[in-house]
Amino acid sequence: MTRILVIGSVNLDLSAAVPRLPQAGETVSGAKLSRFPGGKGANQALAARRLGAEVELIACVGNDANAVEALALLKDGGVELSRCVVDANADTGVALICVAPSGENNIVVAPGANAALSADRFDLPVAEALICQLEVPGETIALSVNNFAGFVCVNLAPARAVDDIVLTRADLIVVNETEAAWYGDKLSMCRGYVATTFGKKGAELSRDGKRVAKSTPPQVDAIDTTGAGDTFTAALTLALVEERTPQDALEFACTAGAVATTKQGAQPSLPMRALVEEFSNAS
Ligand code: RIB
User: Fold this and answer.
1) pLDDT at position 16, please?
2) N or C: which end of the chain has fewer CB within 10 A?
3) What is the pLDDT of residues 66-121, one digit of tens each?
4) pLDDT of 39
């Protein structure tokens, strides 16, 4: 079984299903509120686990009831959490999410304890792949990426300045269209693969500035896109480490991401590998 290490965020998602996404200064009423475990790190860890990897997550939570709720599905799913840090002086991260009937969302994150995940609070275990995102301190990501011996995937989300080592050391960078525009030419510093996602239009994989694979996901009835990018990131990393071809790996990741949009909430919607394969065989 492929062993994947994820270093990243844990949030409790307060998710409002809204008739439409509010504009600046606007109040939209009539929402239905739900609570789901989330956070890009936690979502990517559980996604990789459900897709068949052995997974460890290193994260930081507060000593509060939200942490219990936020970690529940990771524990049930068998994600190793023994190196997770509990910071008694911080609150567990919370994400406020609005989801439109089309499945589109917008997200505001209060990082809380995620901001306290410094590299001196954990040792780096051995694994075949490391996945990071940008919801924990940049220095922690830079040090971890630099000291890790295996395959490194960095999901540059949410977009913000990163140490050059993060871009030069990554074997795989994952960005959506907006993030790709934000980083611009800096992405060419990556010597590995760069995957760019375009929502329901699919994704492309490039290397040395040349496109090596392109895929369109199966058509699904999307109801909530929260966690779809996280599923894509985990699936693509796993498939490349399993030495599937770039085209095969991208198709698997696009299908997994699309399936993740068919249920509400980040973690409840993360698909098992068998379900992704069912969709792949049907399309
Ligand atoms: O990528 C989706 C995630 O982003 C949500 O679960 C939310 O917690 C934010 O971190």
Assistant:
1) 97
2) N
3) 999 999 999 999 999 999 999 999 999 999 999 999 999 999 999 999 999 999 99
4) 98
- Residue 32 in tokens: 């239905």
**26 in any annotated domain:** no
Return the pLDDT at 155. 98
Residues in contact with ligand 1 by the CB-under-6-Å rule are 9, 11, 13, 38-40, 43, 95, 107, 109, 135, 226-227, 229-230, 266
Whole-number pLDDT of residue 205: 98
- How many whole angstroms separate alpha carbon 152 and alpha carbon 149? 8
Domain region containing 152: 3-19+33-282
> CA-CA distance, 82 to 125, in Å (whole number)?
11
SS3 content of the chain, % helix, strand, coil (to 5): 35, 25, 35
Distance in Å, CA 267 to ligand 1 centroid: 10
CA 224 from centre of chain: 15
Closest CA to 87 of 115, 110, 124: 115
Residue 283 has a pLDDT of 77
Distance, CA 216 to ligand 1 centroid (Å)? 23
| Residue nearest ligand 1's atom 10 by CA | 39
* Bridge pairing between strands 129-132 and 54-58: unpaired
Is residue 228 included in any domain, yes or no? yes
**The pLDDT value given to residue 159:** 98
Residue 177, domain member (yes or no):
yes
CATH of the domain at 201: 3.40.1190.20
Parts of the chain with a pLDDT under 50: none
Number of folded domains that form the chain: 1
Structure-token pair, residue 156:
């540059």
163 tagged catalytic: no
CA-proximal residue: ligand 1, atom 8 (nearest):
39
Per annotation, catalytic residue among 87, 171, 224, 230: 230
Give me ligand 1 centre to Cα 161, in Å.
Answer: 19
Distance of CA 45 to the CA centre of its chain: 8
